[in-house]
């Protein structure tokens, strides 16, 4: 979504091809709510008259000194997360000093009831759907992406479809847990919503829209945007004779919602989701977003104010710690690399940050010290996108150091394929309510665009939508990772567990090498040429190769 689905100017990656996973690149950023790094705060961090809440990150063991720094500016510490090393503080001025790594604005609008980690694993079915008489789903003919990676009835489904003991967390805008092609694999007990929607932004402009539930907090089986549902469907839509099949149709889906209805992914809810994943036995997490409001986080960019620099330092520190926390507890982390058509090893300019509040974006020169978060963090598997011909998608970010693996994410501009228009994108489940809100279907439920497919069976209709983006590529990798957990995982917290380092090694062994084009680059248009650097085994367009579900279920254990 925003964080991951944004377009070069800060829009979602999957819809406008800027999201990390495809649909949207709206990074849900600072915490529960919308970051309120306003122009006034940025211009005069020392004289801000109104107190507000901040996330104050400190070095290891410096919580006491950080508390002193907050109190020195007349602020109060509201709470502390010693595991991730930050304070939630209320102050009228930004605290500073050697005990402060970074400070990020935070507002109570996203305040969520604290969820205590389950004392013991939640009971769930012993196994996923049986593999007997596996057949392709009704819409399988439209799934060129699954054929590319061998996730078909004649391919990986014959060997392994996953196991309900494997838990895949989707950190996104939510999951429509009642969708007929998701419900059988949806783990309602473990699913959580870490955000509270906000009807309007600080300028009074419409943001998430009117509240639909008490306290503006949606239930954990709701997705008013559709991005998270699409991602979840690609990972694990079941083989139930309805619609499509996912990469791992027998695993469990856990909604770890950190994205707002408007598609922003702020820091606090995103960290909360990662920490929850680590505490509750989640095996694999998909992150198709970037953390708002910065597409690129630069610790010391002269184009930014001191307050903005501190905010970006806070995002880097907070997410680095949250990712490390989850990985140390057995969570394998998969992220869309981004939809900015940018070589992340040599970025030049960021024109879409900060993307919140609206109208705050500016153009600034950047370099390789600036990070796309979470894709460029240690321990995160960054996924590039390819179209039907296996050409790197025109929108997909890339980089010799940054790209880890590639997967189908769709590309309407792809050449070398007989597919046309939306059929070159990725088809997956969509919430009916979201389609109605976007006027993609009419009052009778009939699609108004070729990008939406309706399938009815026994009086029940399901909807599917074509989307493209690295947001769509990442869930293919998360699904393959889930298959590997099903094969090689051992009994543990949540059901099965597999060390992330070993899973990553197995994942790379499950890819097909794809070298740079013979010319060394792809020339998409007169003003868009992307240069590929690296070997056939590892390069900036495809990383370690294009993932394969079929190889994942057949490679020998190591």
UniProtKB/TrEMBL annotation:
Query: Which key words are in the record?
Result: Hydrolase, Protease, Serine protease
Query: What processes does the entry annotate via GO biological process terms?
Result: proteolysis
Signal peptide (residue range): none
The family line of this record is: Belongs to the peptidase S8 family.
Q: GO molecular function: any one?
A: serine-type endopeptidase activity
- Gene3D superfamilies with a match to the protein in the record: Peptidase S8/S53 domain
PANTHER family assigned: CEREVISIN-RELATED (PTHR43806:SF11), PEPTIDASE S8 (PTHR43806)
Q: Which InterPro entries match?
A: Peptidase_S8/S53_dom (IPR000209), Peptidase_S8/S53_dom_sf (IPR036852), Peptidase_S8_Asp-AS (IPR023827), Peptidase_S8_His-AS (IPR022398), Peptidase_S8_Ser-AS (IPR023828), Peptidase_S8_subtilisin-like (IPR050131), Peptidase_S8_subtilisin-rel (IPR015500)
> Which residues are in coiled coils?
none
Identify the catalytic residues.
172 (charge relay system), 227 (charge relay system), 471 (charge relay system)
* Name by which UniProt lists this protein: S8 family serine peptidase
Chain spans, region Disordered? 339-362
In terms of domain of life, where is this protein from? Bacteria
Species per Swiss-Prot/TrEMBL record: Herbidospora solisilvae
Domain Peptidase S8/S53 residues, every copy: 164-511
């Amino acid at each position: 979504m925003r964080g991951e689905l944004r377009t070069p100017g800060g829009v979602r990656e999957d819809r406008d091809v800027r999201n990390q996973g495809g649909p949207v690149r709206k990074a849900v950023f600072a915490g529960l709510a919308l970051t309120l790094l306003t122009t006034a705060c940025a211009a005069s961090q020392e004289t801000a008259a109104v107190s507000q809440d901040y996330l104050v990150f400190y070095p290891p063991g410096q919580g006491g000194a950080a508390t002193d720094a907050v109190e020195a500016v007349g602020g109060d510490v509201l709470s502390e997360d010693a595991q991730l090393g930050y304070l939630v503080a209320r102050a009228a001025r930004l605290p500073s000093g050697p005990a402060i790594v970074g400070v990020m604005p935070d507002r109570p609008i996203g305040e969520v009831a604290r969820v205590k980690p389950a004392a013991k694993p939640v009971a769930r079915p012993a196994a996923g759907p049986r593999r007997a008489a596996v057949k392709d789903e009704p819409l399988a003919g439209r799934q060129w992406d699954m054929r590319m990676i061998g996730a078909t009835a004649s391919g990986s489904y014959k060997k392994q479809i996953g196991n309900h003991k494997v838990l895949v967390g989707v950190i996104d805008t939510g999951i429509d847990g009642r969708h007929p092609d998701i419900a059988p694999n949806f783990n309602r007990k473990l699913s959580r919503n870490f955000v509270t929607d906000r009807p309007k932004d600080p300028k009074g402009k419409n943001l998430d829209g009117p509240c639909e539930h008490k306290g503006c907090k949606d239930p954990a089986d709701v997705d008013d945007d559709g991005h998270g549902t699409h991602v979840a469907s690609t990972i694990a839509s079941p083989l139930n004779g309805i619609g499509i099949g996912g990469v791992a149709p027998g695993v469990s889906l856990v909604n770890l919602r950190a994205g707002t209805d408007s598609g922003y992914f702020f820091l606090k809810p995103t960290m909360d989701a990662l920490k929850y994943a680590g505490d509750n036995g989640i095996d694999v997490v998909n992150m198709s977003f970037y953390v708002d409001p910065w597409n690129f986080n630069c610790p010391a960019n002269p184009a930014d104010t001191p307050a903005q620099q501190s905010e970006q330092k806070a995002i880097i520190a907070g997410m680095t710690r949250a990712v490390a926390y989850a990985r140390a507890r057995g969570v394998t982390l998969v992220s869309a690399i981004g939809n900015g058509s940018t070589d992340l090893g040599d970025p030049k300019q960021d024109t879409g940050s900060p993307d919140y509040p609206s109208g705050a974006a500016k153009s600034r020169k950047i370099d390789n010290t600036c990070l796309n978060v979470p894709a460029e963090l240690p321990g995160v598997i960054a996924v590039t996108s390819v179209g039907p011909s296996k050409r790197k998608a025109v929108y997909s970010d890339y980089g010799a150091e940054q790209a880890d693996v590639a997967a189908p994410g769709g590309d309407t501009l792809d050449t070398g394929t007989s597919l046309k228009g939306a059929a070159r994108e990725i088809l997956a489940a969509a919430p009916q309510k979201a389609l109605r809100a976007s006027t993609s279907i009419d009052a009778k439920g009939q699609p108004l665009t070729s990008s939406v497919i309706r399938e009815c069976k026994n009086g029940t209709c399901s909807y599917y939508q074509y989307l493209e983006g690295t947001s769509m590529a990442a869930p293919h990798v998360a699904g393959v990772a889930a298959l590997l957990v099903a094969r090689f995982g051992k009994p543990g917290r949540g059901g099965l567990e597999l060390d992330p380092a070993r899973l990553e090694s197995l994942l790379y062994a499950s890819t097909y090498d794809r070298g740079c084009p013979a010319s060394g680059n792809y020339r998409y248009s007169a003003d868009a040429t992307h240069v590929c650097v690296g070997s056939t085994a590892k390069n900036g367009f495809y990383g370690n190769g294009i993932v394969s579900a079929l190889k994942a279920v057949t490679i020998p254990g190591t």
